[in-house]
Amino acid sequence: MFVVESPGFAAALKCLRRKLQRDSGFPSKRKLDEILSINPEQDKFSFSHRMRSLRKKCFKSTSGLHDDLSGVLQFFVRVSSRTIVIRALPEDTVKLVQDQLNAKTRIPQSEQRLVFECRLLCPDFTVAESGIKNNSSIQLIGRLKSTPLPGAWMVANELVSATRSYFPRKLVSTDCSYIEYLVNIFLEMIPNDDVHSAWRYLDVFVFSGASAALVSLYASSKVHSSAKVHAENAIKIFLRLDSELWPSHLFRQSLTVVLEFYKLLSAAVSRSDRLLLSCRRAISSLLESTATLEYVHCNDKRWHLRVLEEILPYVRHSSGVLALNLSQWVSSNFSHDNFICASVLIEDFSSFLSPLRAGIGRPCLSLPCTCEQAGIKLSENGFRWLHIIFVELLDTMGRCLGQVEEKMLRDDKWAGSTILLTLLTTINDLTEIFPQGENVFHALLAKHSRAVNALIRKAKHSHGLWWIRKHRDVTNFESRRHLALLMFPDELQDFEEMHEMLIDRSSILTESFEYIYNADALSLQGGLFVEFKNEEATGPGVLREWFCLLCREIFNDANVLFRSCPLDRRRFYPNPASDVEPLYLRYFMFCGRLIALALMHGIQIGIVLDRTFYLQLAGRPISLDDVQDADPFLHSSCKKILEMDAELLDSDVLGLTFVREIERLGVRRTVELCYGGKDKSVNSGNRQRYVDLMIRHCFVTSTSAQVKSFLTGFSDILCDPLSHKLFFGSLDPEDLDRMLGGDDGSVSVKDWKKHTDYNGYKASDNQICWFWKVVECMSKDQRRSLLFFWTSVKFLPLEGFSGLGSKLSICRSSKSVDHLPVSQTCFYQLSLPPYPSHATMKKRLLFVTQAHVNSGFGEP
Fold this sequence. Notes:
Elements: H1 7-20, H2 29-36, H3 44-61, E1 73-79, E2 82-88, H4 94-105, E3 113-116, E4 119-120, E5 137-141, H5 150-164, H6 177-189, H7 195-207, H8 210-219, H9 225-236, H10 251-268, H11 274-291, H12 298-331, H13 336-360, E6 371-373, E7 376-378, H14 380-410, H15 417-431, H16 437-447, H17 449-456, H18 477-485, E8 499-503, H19 508-517, H20 521-525, E9 528-532, H21 540-554, E10 562-565, E11 568-574, H22 584-601, E12 608-609, H23 611-617, H24 632-643, H25 646-650, E13 659-664, E14 667-672, H26 687-699, H27 704-717, H28 724-729, H29 733-741, H30 749-754, E15 756-759, H31 766-776, H32 780-791, E16 808-812, E17 822-824, E18 829-832, H33 838-848
Parallel strand pairs: 1-5, 8-9, 11-12, 15-16, 16-18
Antiparallel strand pairs: 1-2, 3-4, 3-5, 6-7, 10-11, 13-14, 17-18
Helix pairs in contact: 1-3, 5-6, 5-8, 6-9, 7-10, 8-9, 8-10, 10-11, 10-12, 11-13, 12-13, 12-14, 13-15, 14-15, 14-17, 15-16, 22-27, 24-26, 31-33
């Protein structure tokens, strides 16, 4: 039998019975007893229907009788989209209130959770003990057991209640660490072996409002700082990808919660907030890690699509804000305040877009479209959004580049280049998605090529501008050189960390080889400190001199390591016969390190690598035209074979077969160019293959071991040893010639004068006038020798004296006129005594240009 335990309901029944005597429309007492005597287990429908009807009449009749029921409280229970009115006495338990709700909603009491003022009401507490007052509002969270993961819902809602209890004027307050405890409990509930269930758990965390409650507590200014700290720590639990709570295969699932945190924090805190920045970095890491995964399982594909669709609104909003801010930045003449805001916005935008671009792949579809990439479909609307973003960024970038060149010319230290370089890289990430995207982007770069090259010259390694190789025709030599040199580490200024060498001039090659080959690569990347034995000179001037003297020894014609080109003695390629030297592979590794170090230190050593050598280093094929400088005879012979009349060649008048004759140390031998080559005649049908095989054997096969060792040594000096192909691929052969060889032409006296200052002299003094007259009358080699004596620079950069970085100077020496000039090569300084006549000046200057004098004669 059902027993009515509620005093409030009993009081209502008593009031109803009193009115039965005055109103015959109400049921009699016997009728009421019949209703109450129904067994709810046997006739649930009849009992519920009659009880609802009876309670409706009871409470309707007593709605205005507070004089009779002065202790009855009326409050409102919110259930989904409707509100239920409940009446109870203060001494009634919450459990009795749940009984009334059960009758009205059919939600079992065991599945009901009542939340009042962010607190979960205990069923055993009375209405008064729970703090419920007249006209209060209560939230009913029901059907926990009939929904998936009821335990997760309970913990998440408890977290919401606990979080809100820290606000002022709340009834209950708990220990601040309680919210961190609840977050950890929630994460421990997530199964490690079921990816699909992990999504559902994290969805519960978001849909329950737990993430919003944590952000609200963190961003509020009305709570104690300790509560904010604990809220921050609770959020950071989701950002710690190395946490034991996050197995590696669940990293991706955490992205949905982190995205929710980022959205809420963006609206609640400043863009420079540390937690917001941490959240953004976590999103970027998660997206980058998921972009490289192979999506095999169906669930993974659905998750990937879900993430892409969730990220797109963020990217679309971020791009709009970024475009507006950049427009304001340009219109304000690149003000500093707008620069800071633009920096944050571009970082925010790129952190979302780049991984998104990597996750989409390359659909190569036109719009409108539906993309299917590896079984993942992105909506047509999503690609429309990406297209709008692409067009907006192109337009914004065009307006920025239109004004940036003038700004950079006025202000050499302008810091805004970082923003535009990052934006250029971001636009490039989008070009492959759309047809003609690369062509449109290339047209923009070509239109503003001067501004683009000015920006590239301010780039750093972190900007990742290697994609610019696709637009090589837009760049100039200075830009390509700058990008290539970014692959080398920065020179250290601390002499204690440099690789020190004490070299004897008489055995410079042998001792330098021991120092460089046996050194640890990391110590060489820090820079070099060179001293010559029995000499006090040190510094950059000595380093430049060491490079020039050492390279002169290595690339000497008497050395077997390299061959010089017949028509250009400054151009070298590996000698196939270098294996006569027992340590030839070690020496080639040493040479690779030396060339890389010369490039890193920006020293022109006066030699260049032949085109055949460069193409091997870059991993490119060698054609007939490429060997013209290295072997003019081979080039001419092969060209004649290709141009010969077909009938004449087929008549075997030349008697050629697929073999090559090699002479080494007076011994001749024959090598087959292919299997069975000695029995295969060259004819009009296979002559092109014969030429290709001959060139390959002469310049690739016969020197492959030398080139490999050279590359190994060269790669040791790069920041990333695996980027050597990227280094050589980012340059033209002529670019590397300029970087290593410098200017081999005659030294311009006019340019020399323009970049020379005087200390103790005036330009009109006799000594200075005599000095320049003597220099003008010198030969090309004498001028170069004087320049080397003065600066330890034998081959100027292509920019001339302006490329040295600082001006030269002539100082008045206090020494007698019997002394020779003295140089301080580190500072490009020449100390010149006040010689009394032009003849004396000429005699002294010509003496220091002699080969046995100009090396090592100066001071540091």
